[in-house]
Amino acid sequence: MNTDELYYSATDLLKSLVETPSTSREETAAADRIEQFITGTGRTAHRKNNNIWSIAPGYRPDRPTLLLNSHIDTVKPVSGWKREPFAATEEEGRIYGLGSNDAGASLVSLLHAFLWLSAKEQPYNLLFLASAEEEVSGKNGIESVWSELPPVHFAVVGEPTGMRPAIAEKGLMVLDCTVYGKSGHAARQEGDNAIYKAVKAVEAFRDFRFPEESDILGPVRLSVTLIQAGTQHNVIPDRCDFTVDVRTNERYSNAEALEILKKNIDCEITPRSLRLNSSHIDREHPFVRRAVLLGLEPFGSPTLSDQALIPVTSVKIGPGDSARSHTADEYIETEEIREGIELYIKLLDNLNIG
Hints:
This protein is an alpha+beta fold. It is built from 8 helices and 18 strands. The longest helix has 18 residues, at 100-117.
C-alpha cells in the first residue's frame, strides 16, 4: 500500500471506530472491529479480553522487538457536545467524534504504519498492540497481556502530541491521608479538632518541595484535591480525611516519593497504587535522534498514558492535540492522520533500536 492508500484506509477505520462506542471497560465491539481489520489484511490477530495484538511475519528471537501501542477506549462524552459524539462527522477537513483525537488517530496511524513497515525487512521484530482500559489504568488493559507478548525492547506509544516526541512523562500517585483528633461537644469546646490538626498537614503538602527537579518535567507536583470531616455542626470531629494528587517526575519512583513524604509530613498516608510511575527516554536514543533530525522537538508530558505500565524504554508520540482530549466536539484534522502515518514510517523504517 502506498501512503495515499494507507491514509484512506486509516481514515475509514477511524470513522468506524468513532461510530462504535468504546468507553473504558466497554470496548468489546471496538476490539472486534480492530481484530476483524487485522485478520482482513491476512495477518494473525491475538486477543485477551479487549486487547488485540499482531506480530509481523518473520519474527526472530535473536532480534530486538519494537512495540507499537495505542488504546481503543475513550472517556464518557461530556455534556457540552453540540454534535453526536458517536457519529464521526466530517466537516472542512476535520473528523469530529469521541475518541477521534484521543487516541483513535494515533491508533489507526500506528496500525497502518505497522502494515507498511512489516511488508519489508526490518532490523527488529515488529509488534502492534491495541490496548483496553487505558483511560482508567485498568487491570484488564496492557498490564494483563504484557507477559503474553514476545519480549519487548522498545515501545512507541500513540497519544496526541502533535507528532512531537514526549521523551518523559509524569507519573501519578493518589494518596489517602488521615489526621485523628478527639470528639467532643462544640458548645463546651471539648475534644481535639481533627480539622485544625489537618490544616498543618495540608499546608505541609502545599509547601513541600522534593530536592530533585527534572530539566524536562520540572518538580514533583503535590495537590490536595479532596477533604472530608465531621458528622454534624455541634460535634468536634475526631477524624479528617483528605486526598493528595502526586505527579512524580523521572527522578523518583512512586515508592521513593511515598517514603520521602511519610518521613516529612505528620499524618497517616496510604497510597491507592504505586503502579503508575514516571517514564523517560535518553535524548541520545536512536529514535529521539532521528526525530530531531526530522525537525521534531522533544518535550516533557504532564499527562498520563500506558507508558506508566510499560516496563521498558518507551516514547510517546502521535497525531492530534492533547488539549482537544476529553473535550466536547473532540476532533482530528484529516491531514494530521496522513502526517502521522508518514512520520511514523520515517521515524521507524530501518531504525536500529539496539
